[in-house]
Amino acid sequence: MATVQVSEAEKLYVLHGVRDDLRVDGRSCEDYRHMEIETDVVSNTDGSAKVTLGHTNVLVGIKAEIGKPKPMVPDEGYLEFFVDCSANATPEFEGRGGEGLGIELSNTLYKVFSNKHSIDLKSLCIRPGENCWVLYVDVLLLQCDGNLFDAISVAIKAALFNTKIPRVHISEDEDGGKEIELSDDPYDCVRVNVENVPCIVTLCKIGHRHVVDATLQEKACSVASLLISVTHRGTVTCVRKVGGGSLDPESIFEMTETGKRVGKALHTPLMELLQKEESLGSKRQKVGFLG
Amino acid sequence: MLKSKTFVKKTRSGGILKVVREHYLRDDIWCGSEVCEDCKDESPVLEKNPCLESSLCTYPHYLIPDTNVVLHQIDVLEDPLIRNVIILQTVLQEVRHRSGPAYKRIKDAIHNKEKHFYTFTNEHHRETFIEREPGESANDRNDRAIRVAAQWYSKHIPNSAEIKVVMLTNDRLNKEKAEQAGLVVYKCEEYIKSLIANPELVDRLAATADDQNEMTSSKIIFPEHLPLSQIQTGIKSGKYIQGTFRANRDNYLEGTVFVHGEGDESTEILLQGLQKLNRAVHQDLVAVELLPRDDWVAPSAVVLQDDGGKGEDDEEEEDEEKKLQTKKVHRDAMKPTGRVVGIIKRNWRPYCGMLNVSQIKESTRHLFTPADRRIPRIRIETRQAATLAGQRIMVAIDGWPKNSRYPKGHFMKSLGNAGDKETETEVLLLEHDVPHLPFSQKVLSFLPKMPWAITEDDMKNRVDLRHLCVCSVDPPGCTDIDDALHCRDLENGNLEVGVHIADVSNFIRPGNALDEEAASRGTTVYLCGKRIDMVPELLSSNLCSLRSNVERLAFSCIWEMNHNAEILNTRFTKSVINSKASLTYAEAQMKIDDANMNDDITQSLRGLNKLAKILKAKRIEKGALTLSSPEVRFHIDSETHDPIDLQTKELKETNSMVEEFMLLANISVAQKIYDEFSECALLRKHPCPPPSNYDILHKATKTKNLVIHTDSAKELADSLNEAEIDGFPYFNTLLRILATRCMMQAVYFCSGLDSDFRHYGLATPIYTHFTSPIRRYSDIIVHRLLAVAIGADSTYPALMDKHKQAALCNNLNYRHKMAQYAQRASVAFHTQLFFKNRGILNEEGFILFVRKNAIIILIPKFGLEGTVFFENRDKPSPKMLFNEEGPTLTVEGHTFNMFDRVRVTISLDASNIQNQKIRMALLDPVIPGVSVPLPEPEPEAKKAKLDR
């Protein structure tokens, strides 16, 4: 993970600031940095979104392909995650530097998103046991400035919202031969229900308090952080501790409560924003990567 | 401005792919009209005064046809009358997608400057590009794009010009919407009918779906065809079988479906009756369903022609169908029988033929009879029936609705009066798919520049053989001489024999337009009095032709032989020769026979002749077959080009001399290229016929108490030599003719894809064609291979690709077959011309085959084959009994056996002008009610004298 070197004096300064609910950039402990979202940025994908959080910049593209359902759950589709840590994001990713992080991130994403509570996987099934949609979620890190998980999760939710899966139907003849047929209208497509898709809120324990959306500097001051995925109802779907230090049960409980509160508050404006963007349709001026 | 086009498609493996293409819009696409001042078009295509007089549009106008109009009414659009048409890019793309031939034709029309057809790239024009809207089908979107473009034009063309655009569409909805948008729009039929200048154009209108609706009341004759998706799944599951439909030439109610199998496992499925044929037309790709075993039938031996003067009397047809289902035959004779359930791909082409003018005077609907008997008759609408009667015309099929007895089509063009030599030649070239158009400029541009001379460069890799006494021996009048020979004594007492073949591959370089054209033509086609060249005349009759006393490039095959014609040494080389004489067979024969002649050429010829005789004897010893087919040669009047006499070709010793050395060269070359390139050598094989092919030969000889052994070529050759009947000298020839019919077709193939190389007829283990590169493309490839093998030329990728070679072989085999058919058709036509001038003749003939209701007779004097039918429409049929074992046919007590001698009258039946036939009628044996009386003795002798 990208890190910055912080001196003892700086560390103390950050620590004291957090204690007084005033962070280096002026935010309070539960504030996110400025966030920008744009969907439908890559035309080759079935759904895509770009999220900028502070200077953290991630791009998520989703491609839907037809695959075979997993034998254990023949009536469900599934998701596959791949995180590409581009060397553009930080020099540490050069060569194979980003590989470990990429795997860690994709494993976490798999745990958080690929389950029937987050997404209606049954709706991805085309023919039980034979064909289903597989959503390949490709995450590209363009720039790292802390709090990758939160940025990625928001981008994934936005990209899923944007995803348009071509509508197929199964034609069947009298002999029982089945054939997947594609609608010839490119506008005829299925959307993914993102209502229950969670967002990840990462809480960093700094001193005795914890902050959301830690910058790299703050991260360096923290011993451990807790990763909580929360749905729009405030249901916690996944909790994971990352970092070397330990957390006492008391603070875990406190952090979970904060996470729920912040996560719930994150969903509402996100969905509003996405719907607003959607309603603009093709008239919307695209910003893309040059904005 | 940049837009992107997005669509999803299904890949072959079943995956689904989203495709995004960039699409640029421009504002510098000109409208192409001469009147427009805004557009900076340098050479506008559309005229300032488009004049096309129509009673509907009295003002000057440009036409914008929609896709279906271009697709279906291309014959109309091609007419020189129709000018100033705007073809939208949308239309062009759709046409290209849906029909290759139509696309090519509309492109040709666009390129034709006279036509003033303009392609407007509306899809890339900023103001006419539209995106597909949600809920809109691709077709609707294209229709809208056409309307938008038409609207743009009507706004864009300045009002002062007073030119309007007229949209043509047959789609009712599209028309309504266009009218709402304020466009001038007509149905194609409406518009064409309104044209004042040319009412005949209406005939070329293709029948559209709308017209067919009028007929819904009439009864449905055929079962519905299944949709393609159902056929495909049916084929996958094995319920239906896919194959090529082949109509029976002699019986219009019967056909077979040829099913391609792996290797030799190709099978045939029999179809009988109109219902089972279910609107399949010859060469269509169809899906068939096998009938249960109990319903299988045997192919009938009846000859049935759809002569249909009787119109659509279904009852008679049913009678004829019943006739097919003769009493239960032996189970072995049963063939797998099926019925057509659907058409996978139509293989319709324009057909040549003639019009059967309707009996009803004012009727505009007529039947058209194609020249090819395997094609059903076609119903067309025309008002020019009176003029078209007696002409050869071309007709295209538009469709075959299930309630119509005949397919529907439309008139395309007239080829000229039936019976004219030019017209008939054109017909037979078109019908046999022989490419006969003049060579294009592009092809000609690859010819060497004249004056041509051998340069230093040419002499590299070449041996100078100009000093040798080389000569050529060919039929009289031959201008494309591709082989020359020499023979001389060597100092060691052996003989040196050289075969020199025109070095065509030096002039035709791989891959250029000339090469591609030659590869596509495949062979030169020789018709009576006309030659359709494979390569342009400059090459065929001049630069490549090994004429005497000029220096020519050659590819030589030189052997050292001893006096027993055993090859001691073979050498291949590119060379330069200077032929000392171009002889005809007769001249060469005279030189050899004339003891007074002792010049070099004669010496050389004698040496060759001696060796050839030994070679021939050896070949026959090995089991080479001498087969026979009656070949006819016409004496053509030099002025009228009419045949005035005909004779069967006679063979001289010198013919066989040249042939022997050509065979030897071919075999030597075949061995060489196979040794060098075992994977991609182009060879020729003649497969051994399956034993069942000889059935007819066995049956026939049994009646004469003779036995023909057919186990091997050698045994066949020997027993044919022994089969003689006293007092019947022609019997042996008849047998040989029959044996020829049992043979398989010789074919080209690529050595890497086959294991059986034998040439059965020539009794050689390997064979190819090397000796006639001027008239056969196969030889050019063999030349190239050999040149690479001896290091005289460089190779190229396609030459070494066995799959490309195999594809080439397929084309060559097809072209050869077609060329043969065309040649035969040409001979048949000239035979007719000959008999036309003769009146009724009275000749002796022999029965070649016996059929269920007819006998086929060969007249040796003319090499002519004809059929005597024992059934007549107007008369009650005589009592007939057909015995398959013989096969014999007993008519009113007289039994006809194969090889029986009969006398017949020969006359040209010109009563039915569209299919002039040689008609034969029986004179002797006399059977009451069947045979005809001796014709009035005409002053034959006098007439003959006049002819001379």
Automatic annotation (TrEMBL), chain A:
Record lineage: Eukaryota, Metazoa, Chordata, Craniata, Vertebrata
Subunit structure: Component of the RNA exosome core complex (Exo-9), composed of EXOSC1, EXOSC2, EXOSC3, EXOSC4, EXOSC5, EXOSC6, EXOSC7, EXOSC8 and EXOSC9; within the complex interacts with EXOSC2 and EXOSC4. The catalytically inactive RNA exosome core complex (Exo-9) associates with the catalytic subunit EXOSC10/RRP6. Exo-9 may associate with DIS3 to form the nucleolar exosome complex, or DIS3L to form the cytoplasmic exosome complex. Exo-9 is formed by a hexameric base ring consisting of the heterodimers EXOSC4-EXOSC9, EXOSC5-EXOSC8 and EXOSC6-EXOSC7, and a cap ring consisting of EXOSC1, EXOSC2 and EXOSC3.
PANTHER family xref list: EXOSOME COMPLEX COMPONENT RRP42, EXOSOME COMPLEX EXONUCLEASE RIBOSOMAL RNA PROCESSING PROTEIN
Protein name from the UniProt record: Exosome component 7
Exoribonuclease phosphorolytic domain residues: 32-166, 196-261
Alphabetical keyword list: Acetylation, Cytoplasm, Exosome, Nucleus, RNA-binding, rRNA processing
Record field: transmembrane: none
Database matches in SUPFAM superfamilies: Ribonuclease PH domain 2-like, Ribosomal protein S5 domain 2-like
Similarity comment: family membership: Belongs to the RNase PH family.
Organism (species): Alosa alosa (allis shad)
Record keyword Nucleus present: yes
Location of this chain's protein in the cell: Cytoplasm; Nucleus, Nucleolus
Example of a GO biological process term: rRNA catabolic process
Single GO MF descriptor: mRNA 3'-UTR AU-rich region binding
CDD domains associated with the record: RNase_PH_RRP42 (cd11367)
A GO cellular-component term linked to this record: nuclear exosome (RNase complex)
Keyword tRNA processing: no
Automatic annotation (TrEMBL), chain B:
Required cofactor names: Mn(2+); Mg(2+)
GO molecular function, one term: endonuclease activity
A GO biological-process term: rRNA catabolic process
Record bears the keyword Ubl conjugation: no
Localization (cell): Cytoplasm; Nucleus, Nucleolus; Nucleus, Nucleoplasm
Gene Ontology CC: one annotated term: cytoplasmic exosome (RNase complex)
Chain intervals for the UniProt region annotation (Disordered): 304-330
Keywords: Acetylation, Cytoplasm, Endonuclease, Exonuclease, Exosome, Hydrolase, Magnesium, Manganese, Nuclease, Nucleus, Phosphoprotein, RNA-binding, rRNA processing
Domain PIN: 61-176
Protein family (similarity comment): Belongs to the RNR ribonuclease family.
Protein name: Exosome complex exonuclease RRP44
The organism of origin for this protein: Alosa alosa (allis shad)
Organism taxonomic ancestry: Eukaryota, Metazoa, Chordata, Craniata, Vertebrata
